[in-house]
Amino acid sequence: MKPGRLVTRRTALLAGVGATGGLFVPGYIKGLPPTYGHILRMGDNLTYSAQRILLPSRRAVREYSHKDISSFPAIGTTDPASPHIPNRSDEYGPLRKGGFADWRLSVEGLVARPGTYSLADLKRFPARTQITRHTCEEGWSAIAEWTGVPLARVLEAAGMLPTARWVNFRSFDQWADSIDLHDALHPQTLLAYGMNGRDLPVPHGAPVRLRVETQLGYKSMKFLQRIVVTDTFDDGGKNGNIQNGWSWYAGI
Amino acid sequence: MLDQLTADATITAARPALETRGHARWVRVSHWLLTASILVLAFSGFVILMAHPRLYWGETGNDLTPALIELPISRNHRHGGWVDREPVGGPPSAISANRTYSIFNQNGWGRSLHFLAAWFVVGPGAFYLVAGLVSGHFRRHLWPRLRDSQPRILWAELVSHIRLRVPAATGGPDYGLLQKCAYCGVVFVAMPLAVLTGLAMSPTVAAAYPFLQGVLGGFQSARTIHFFSFVAIVLFAIAHVIMVIASGFRRQMRGMTLGR
Known about the structure:
The structure holds two protein chains of two kinds.
Chain A: H1 3-24, H2 39-54, E1 72-74, H3 92-97, E2 104-109, E3 115-118, H4 119-124, E4 128-135, E5 141-150, H5 151-158, E6 166-171, E7 176-180, H6 181-184, E8 190-195, E9 198-199, E10 209-211, E11 224-230
Parallel strand pairs in A: 2-11
Antiparallel strand pairs in A: 2-3, 4-5, 5-8, 6-7, 6-11, 8-9, 8-10
Chain B: H1 2-14, H2 25-50, E1 54-55, E2 69-70, E3 82-87, E4 95-99, H3 108-135, H4 137-142, H5 151-162, H6 177-200, H7 203-208, H8 211-216, H9 219-257
Antiparallel strand pairs in B: 1-2, 3-4
Helix pairs in contact in B: 2-3, 2-9, 6-9
């Protein structure tokens, strides 16, 4: 037997197992987003698991100074009441006309005190202001100042139950999305009602949008309507990312 | 495993004749895994770039700001232009505008495929680097020897390569000076740079290790460097394939697949 041969075969096997084996491990970890047997979703889950396991937890993203605030495109839905979009909302127009005085954010699911919050209710929480970078999956980026209440404060006020695992969001333009507690309780994850010192403009998600600074821009849902805390993963069906071919996790 | 690799290296060093009999198995396995990953990365990277083929420097850059480089690549989505331009607060130059008739771009799969392929670069790539260091492969075959590294030799080799007059293939790792420089450039500069700039673009990684974007000059700088490091890798790959064909395609492919 040639000892050299033996070694190279083993190292080759190690390389193969290390590279491909890791891909299928996350499928067995309980409570990961579903893959539906799709290899791209397995890759998404591998990245998600690896980042949660390997990276130091809940580090703050970089905050910038006022002079760094940049131009900021408004894309996707820029007006949920627009008659030209298929995902328009009949409720949004009247709410906007009334200056969002009748707007309510519903917080429900696995919370001890489900209920609704008006804009004034949210503004009564201690506010947080941060100047952060919005990174779009398309490749562009922009910096803005956001003012709002940390999501963690609202979940705390609603009495989130210990069994909670996911925080789901629904918007007026009929999107469905969710984040895990790692991001939901991140101190920079905001329910933002102010942008660059003004009320949040309609094209950027008025009256309240989510800011998830540790993920790509599309996770920062605009035009928030409802928050549902769950212990099981909800992919949002046809209005969610996964069934539209998008990665649920965009912390990449 | 490491001891055995060293033992393997000693055996190979004692019998230099082995070197002309093809590449070590671990080299062949990592070569083809990395080749497949790089092809998928180049393809999916292009798909991602099609959504926004503009490059910038610094932290920010978008359709409302000037580009450093506008790449002549057609976009994979169309929209109706920008309306309602108005100040957005902050410095006077900062504006907002609404993108109209947004047709949802469908490059979500491109990004997921890109990161899946990236795992196959990070895994086999790390293995290759460790094995190459421990076995002495880098020292003996890849690293240019100082006494041979004269500009005159490099120039002569460059001229002969451009004229496609390259030595006949041995199918093994006995490389010329230019070849060594090219391989070292890809293994130790371009690939690590592509991986680091890729990691720096991740919001979660950037939050965990802020120095990454700091060193690279910001998110958009990292993206621009990422693009050019991959252009370098693709140019290398093209030159590499041409040289493989010029020096004896069948012999080279046998050396890199069967190891004989």
